[in-house]
Structures are given as C-alpha cells and as structure tokens.
C-alpha cells in the first residue's frame, strides 16, 4: 500500500497546485491513500473528498501552526479548524 499523509495544495500559502491536480497526480503515481494537509485549513482536504474513488482514499487533514510547532491532524472536518487556535 502506497500512502502519503503530508501534501499541500493551492489552499496553502506554499503551494499553487489545484486540489484536483493533487489527487490526479497521486493516482498517476500509484498512491492508494493520501491526505492533503494544508496550513491551518482543512479546505483542500475536504475538497479532495469529491475525487475519492475505488483507486484512491482521502483522509481529511490539516497542518496547524501552534506554539509547539506544526501539528498534523487527520480524520477531521471543518469544525476542528473553527475551534483550533492557530499562530501565523
């Protein structure tokens, strides 16, 4: 099983790759499971769920900036983003 759990999309400040292209490229490269973990937002990851199919599974996630450093969170929804304090 090929998995990548730390990918950024256009929803992060450090990437300009559209979510659809991230999922398409992951499929092309043979990934079975991915998680888009954009900085301080779950938007890209939640958008990626619409491209999930029998070829690839999407784990909703985000990378939050905290006083302790960056923390990756998985199996989340937009409510986590709304209730989590973040540092810029």
SS field, number of helical segments: 3
Name the beta content range: 25-35%
**Average residue-wise pLDDT:** 92
Oligomerization category of the chains in this entry: single chain
Q: Give the overall shape.
A: globular
Radius of gyration of CA atoms, rounded to a whole number: 12 Å
Total number of beta strands: 5
Order of helices and strands: EHEHEEEH
Q: What is the share of helical residues? A: 25-40%
Specify the structural class: alpha/beta
* Parts with pLDDT < 50 across at least 5 consecutive residues: none
The order of strands across the largest sheet is 1-2-3
Description:
This protein is 25% helix and 26% strand. The relative contact order is 0.21. The mean pLDDT is 92.
